[in-house]
Amino acid sequence: MSIVQILLVDDEERFLSTTKILLEKRGMNARTAPGGQEALNILSGNPVDVVILDMKMPGMDGVETLRRIKRDHPLVEVIMLTGHASVESAVEGLKLGAFDYVMKPCDVPDLVEKIKEAFARKQAMDEKIRKARIDRIISHPMAVFDKRTDLDD
Amino acid sequence: MDSLQNNGEQSAKFKRIRRMIITRVLIAPFLIVMLVCGVLVYFFADALGRKAQGELSRITDGHRALVDEFLAEQVSALEFTATTRSFTELSEGDALGALFMDLKSKFPAFEDIGVFDEKGRHAAYVGEYDLEGKDYSNTDWFKAVSRRGVYVSDVFKGYRNVPHFVIAVQRIEGGRPWYLRATIDTAYFSNLVKAVRVGSTGQAFIVNGKGVFQTGLSSGERLEEPDPDWRLYRKADAGVESFTAQASDGNTYLYAVGRLQQTGWLLVVRQKATDAYAPLARAVAVAVIVIALGGGVVVLTAYVLASGLAGQLAVVEVEKREMSNKLLAAGKLAEVGEMSAGMAHEINNPLQVMMAECYLINDVLNDLEIPDKNLTPADLSTIRDSMAQISMQISRCSLITQGLLKFARKTDPALHEVDLGDMVEDVVSMVDKRAHIDGVSIAVSAEKGLPRIMSDESQLQQVFLNLLNNALYAVHNRHGAEIRIEVQQEHNEIVVSVADNGCGIEPENLSKIFLPFFTTKPVGQGTGLGLSTCYGIVERLGGRIEVQSEPGAGTVFTVRMPLSQAHAHPGA
User: Fold this and answer.
1) Which residues is B253 bridged to in the sheet?
2) Which chain A residues have a beta carbon less than 8 Å from that of B363?
3) Where are the domains of chain B?
4) How many inter-chain contacts (A to B, CB under 8 Å) are there?
5) Which of B522, B411, B420 is nearest to B467 (CA)?
6) Domain B85-184, CATH homologous superfamily name and number
7) What is the pLDDT of residue B566?
8) Predicted complex ipTM
9) Disruptive mutation site among B349, B363, B436 for chain A (greatest number of A CBs within 10 Å)
């Protein structure tokens, strides 16, 4: 079982640094981004399994960031951080394909639990994709050389 | 104090409304009715006046016929006597005396009788005076009768030196004329003429062609004296003329004048106008009283009606005021609701940080529980750092709650010295965080050394918080969103303008934005109370709020607060 690659996105610097320490203590690998745009930059260059995304941020807000993550990296699971006042944005996020949401202020064990669930799903999905690929290669071996097939997908 | 002032204002308004109703709704119709009544009374008076004149003319005509007939009778009696007797027969002995007795019994107006020969010598006489043998050849009446045959004289004194008038007839007997003359009892004739009953002041008299009285007048004019009012009588030839004129005694009379056919004298019947027009005056008086009473009733009704209406309007006004107070309170509540939601969100972030710090400390402590594990300087600094962070986040939270309390406290209007520049800064600090999250920059530029104004700080805070919230809403999701707040002095006003470069307001909505419950926000998101509350507060504090907007370009709200708070704070 590989180490979970996490990306924390929040505009609260101290929250990022403390949570990063907490998660790493619990055997996870965490990166941080202070905003949506930075998060997208990190995603495009690094392997990330689960994104923890604050929905209320200056600049690009949570919903918009989520939409872009799901567009560019559909396999990455997203857990949203929301306040009580913005349950609507949580609902909207779920519709957009977020894995789950956590109410602020959140318990670290809760968060860790959800991260594990998300990671499990991610792995299951990856597994399915891998199997599908193998099946395809077995049934159509020549397809490996077919340039039109995007094997990295 | 405020409510006292309101009461005064209220009663002034009440009076104004009542006056308006009375004048506009009732006075105009009332004046028309008065005009109609006036016209009716005028025509009624005119008709009555004609009737009075007609009545007098009729009486005068009848009386003239009577007097004419009396004179004609006297003349024919003398003529008959003259033709049935001879000069010789009458001028000798007692025959004239017997004849006179005979005549007198039938014609009591005869006072004496005389027989004259052709030269005018009094041949025989029966009567109270000693006139026998006197020569009358040069008298007016003798000349006239010898010329005309029959003559009725004007009143004169003659030899007897007493006013009288005579009737004389001529008889031609055997080629020689002789004359029979009778004197008419002036008292008898006067009584005959006077015997006309017209009202209580009616009187009749006769003047001759030269305006000299021929009969006595009850008011004292004497016979043979010229009538001072002669110029008034018109020359009525056949009929009787009636008119109203002022006589020399100062009274106004209704006159009727007719000419006697026998003598050419004028029969004058007159009645004091006050008497003649008494029924008219009575009728007019009754009409005026009825109109006055009716008018009084109308005015009273109008007053009561107008008072009632104005009272109802005043009640409505009070209810409206209460309603606006309730709206204000409701707006305030809605504002608190919206704010607390925002506050909750702002508090969540520090709470989240504290939560994370707690777990971090907990982790370190958990590690320490492992045997033969000692507290390293690094662990110590982690704990200290976390504790410092937690206390920092706590003060952040307390700042937020303080802001909320500041806003929620003091709902009663309380006037204190307010520095609008500082106040605006405070309000901006309340929304700064949210604005930062939304990526909106708020720029405040306040003029230095602005004078303080007497006003209610918490209410003004509510106003500007509202305006800022609206501005934030307007610039939502906009690139380069910006809110500019300027505080400056213009003449005797402090002017605060809140300008955004947001979506702006459609022109058709611009006139409605201050109305309660008007909102363009989706259902459930806006109460439509914000700006109406602002408007109410600013008006109450004696200021004005204005708006300028261009759809797509932005909106500027301008609040002008007066420096002198005479209206809102009379005691200052």
Assistant:
1) B245, B272
2) 22, 25
3) 85-184, 415-572
4) 61
5) B420
6) PAS domain (3.30.450.20)
7) 47
8) 0.81
9) B349
